TrEMBL record:
Name this polypeptide is given: ABC-2 type transport system ATP-binding protein
Organism phylogeny: Bacteria, Pseudomonadati, Pseudomonadota, Alphaproteobacteria, Hyphomicrobiales
Occurrences of domain ABC transporter (ranges): 4-224
Annotated family: Belongs to the ABC transporter superfamily.
Whole sequence portion shown: 2 to 225 of 308
Keyword Nucleotide-binding annotated: yes
GO MF annotations, alphabetized: ATP binding; ATP hydrolysis activity
Keywords assigned: ATP-binding, Nucleotide-binding, Transport
The species this protein was found in: Rhizobium azibense
Amino acid sequence: APIISIRNLTKSYANGFEALKGIDLDVEKGEILALLGPNGAGKTTMISIICGIVNPSSGQVLVAGHDVVKDFRATRTMIGLVPQELTTDQFETVWNTVSFSRGLHGKKPNPAHIEKVLRDLSLWNKKDNMLRELSGGMKRRVLIAKALSHEPEILFLDEPTAGVDVTLRKDMWRVVERLRESGVTIILTTHYIEEAEEIADRVGVINGGKLLLVEDKTALMTKL
Ligand code: ADP
Ligand code: ADP
């Protein structure tokens, strides 16, 4: 069975705007899927619903068979999200932010894992710094560390390389590659076709709240 199953998903925001107009999609375990589309296409809305932080208006999303609305406690332990911006308390330390994130995802403390994540992302020497003391790039690294704090089976990256420097971009793809090798399912959003082409197995093209097509990368490249 697919690890993510989305059926007839719609989202209208409180102001009446229809951000998603009936999305159907299955994602297999271990694949890297890129959601490609321009700004405003509905990419962030879609991954926010799968991650359980925005409620759908209608339709269903199952993650490993669990409904993301009704069974949020089960799905939150499986999912890690790297959002575009840091909303965490700026006066907290890197170590506390990342450790706390693990607890929020319903996992028991594991300092050895937190240390590994921080070392992998070159954040170890910043572990006692407050977030407000970090550069923009370091804050992006903290976002990735938070998303990996609880050893998720599915990782979402929202516009991961927008405004990111070359070093971080390389580090990010190294981390993604290692996660892929360990069987983690990865979904990223992007408006760069090169990015989708470079790392994804499959690409979904989204625009105006509709998934226009979903293709293996090689098949897609012959169509564009
Ligand atoms: P929901 O339907 O999920 O309750 P709301 O319409 O109440 O969502 O909006 C949630 C938040 O998003 C509010 O803080 C609102 O100001 C903000 N918001 C409203 N319009 C937009 C928009 N066009 N783009 C991004 N954020 C928006
Ligand atoms: P993308 O990630 O592809 O840029 P989004 O999912 O962020 O697209 O947004 C899709 C559309 O929904 C945009 O037109 C955006 O302005 C609108 N939107 C996003 N959040 C809200 C909100 N809370 N309230 C109203 N409109 C929103």
